[in-house]
């Protein structure tokens, strides 16, 4: 369960204060696949960053799987993210000097797992995204869709409770975008992962359980459980 | 995937840049090691070559002033003196002016009394005493000119108006450092000067004390003996004589040291700039690592490890290179075939200097990496990701 209680977030842009989020309250039950939609500047990514523990609200509270994030300092928050959150970005953000399997193994460096076990888990994650044949390929040797699937494998390799994806289809062609959305849906269904995805892609609505719409930092379609 | 592998992979992200940075550190550490070897080599030379019972007496005004030859006999009676000899700089050149080397008129009878630790070829001293125009020649000079025992050679006088022909009767083997000297009998020079104005002077006088604890008293006695005379003298131990001789190089060495460390400073700035560029280019990646849960400390350490590893590699290569090259120069110098090497051929790099070079390199790496790594580790992940998208 994700709970966002009366959260506001202000940014300073030059001399101006920008209200990225204003008094947002919402609940996302465990195991749901939710899309955050809205025009640019509506506060989608800000909300996603707060849910992922990347940012802190100015007011209000964010609670993920019973953990109030406000009580964690930066290092504790990083450790919490490593255990509980998987992140997928629009531009994949794989490390170019590492192979696909090394990229996927990267978050496991933060665990006490032995090397062989890290490798085994990374292989499983890559197999789950249908890239078992691309283990040793460098990112530049993979297509955009494949790179995004490697990024998804990296996000799930630690078996997190929450998967957050920021425009995961934003840089992909239509076919690859559908493949990625299908993959996220399958991960949500098969492993009961909670998935929160920021997207502009109207096709995403077919894949998600609910859409939360934001505009100018305010929730448009209510705060109830989707 | 391991942390060291991640660090190494990042180093090879831009192999040319890493290579050139490593090379710049290699060259600077090579320079540092060579520069640090200079004073220690001089100290070692003094430590090993100079005797603590041999006393040098020269004109108080400087070594280029002559002393009356009569002083030699006056000093002979000083209590504690067990050997006395003298040097008169002949300044002869062999064949052409560039072949100038130290050649002195000495007393063949007392060479062994004053320099008992010197080694000579068999029968050399007896032949030196018996041969009117005999010469003892340093091993290095023999090799340099390809001379052999029994050969006659002529040195053209530059100070004295005579050319002298010598018969080489033996070789002087150095106990330490290089021996380029040539000794010949003073009597031979006096004979040659007959009719051209007599030669009644010496350049410097060497005394050997029976015991080290008598040295101060002997020097005091020498100073007292010639105070207010026609030529006041300065007496000092061989060690202090060499030290003051080398002191003229000290200012030069100091300049070289300063230049060497300025080079190191410049390399720190270059390496720091490279490190900063490397971090700047990877801000999105560092942000992603942080978003995945990597904390500040491992990121800081990984980034520091990169610059330190580059510097360590450069340091090992630079110090190792200096070790090998200075060793090779020394070996080449011993053959006598490369006289242009000069004192460089006498220098031995100590393991301590190599360790200092590597330590300087590691310090360069740490200094160059700390600020960029600190900034990278403290990166605000949301700001960095916002820049990314």
Structure notes:
The complex is a heterodimer of chains A (226) and B (389). Chain A has helices spanning 44-51, 74-84, 100-105, 115-128, 144-156, 174-191; strands spanning 2-13, 16-28, 33-37, 59-64, 67-68, 85-88, 162-166, 194-198, 210-215, 218-219. Chain A has 226 residues and is α/β, with parallel strands linked by helices. Chain A has one domain: Rossmann fold (3-Layer(aba) Sandwich), CATH 3.40.50. Chain A has a six-stranded mixed beta sheet with strand order 6-7-8-3-9-10. In chain A, strands 2-1-4-5 form a four-stranded antiparallel beta sheet. In chain A, α4 (115-128) crosses α5 (144-156) and α5 (144-156) packs parallel to α6. The longest helix of chain A has 18 residues, at 174-191. The model of chain A has no long low-confidence stretch (mean pLDDT 90). Chain B is an alpha+beta fold. Chain B has two domains: 3-47 and 245-388, no CATH class; 66-230, no CATH class. Chain B is 56% helix and 16% strand. Chain B has 13 helices and twelve strands. Chain B has helices spanning 3-11, 15-49, 70-76, 111-114, 124-130, 139-145, 186-193, 215-225, 238-281, 283-292, 296-335, 351-377, 381-388, and strands at residues 54-59, 67-68, 81-89, 103-106, 119-120, 134-138, 152-156, 163-173, 182-185, 201-202, 204-209, 233-237. In chain B, the strands form two sheets. In chain B, strands 1, 3, 4, 5, 6, 7, 8, 9, 11 and 12 form a ten-stranded mixed beta sheet that branches. Chain B is elongated, with a radius of gyration of 30 Å.
